[in-house]
Model the fold of this input.
Amino acid sequence: MAEILQGLFMRLRLPWLEQHHARIPILALFSFINGCISIGLMSILALITSSPLIFPSLGPTAFLFFYTPRAPSASPRNTIIGHTIGVVAGYFSLLVTGLTTAGPALSVGVTWPRVIAAALSLGLTAGLMVLLKSPHPPAGATTLIISLGILTRPWQLLLLLIAVGLLTLQAIVINRLAGIPYPLWNPPREELDHS
Done:
């Protein structure tokens, strides 16, 4: 995160901030600004299009993008693949348990099929992310959003993936503007190899 700040300050000609103020408050300010910008843009887009383009799992994804941009879990590859796995595993668990048309667990309560759906979706998501070497912890929230019945329609799941893609594009632009060698797809090679 300090690299991002340094790059942005240099590009924005604001190095005096880093020289004249304590580092932690500057990092906090940077996190605050990027959180507002990234999720704010998604919310505005949701408002304009009257589509639910804002989801709880976008928050932790944005945090990874702007606090630990060089971490493998923050790479575009791991983000896109992780959330896609979460969507597929969540919907698969609804199909297996017959819950595709059931109401959300928050409204109708938790049943045994819902317990199975939630456990199965999270287990599949975690296992497949490890198998495909694409860990992205916020995808665990995505799969639970689906298996708990909050989002169940295929068009909603497509919008969720579009939102993840848009947030990822924002991360590429912001981190690159900051001078961070943020990857366009794969995490850095030395961090990817964990065979």
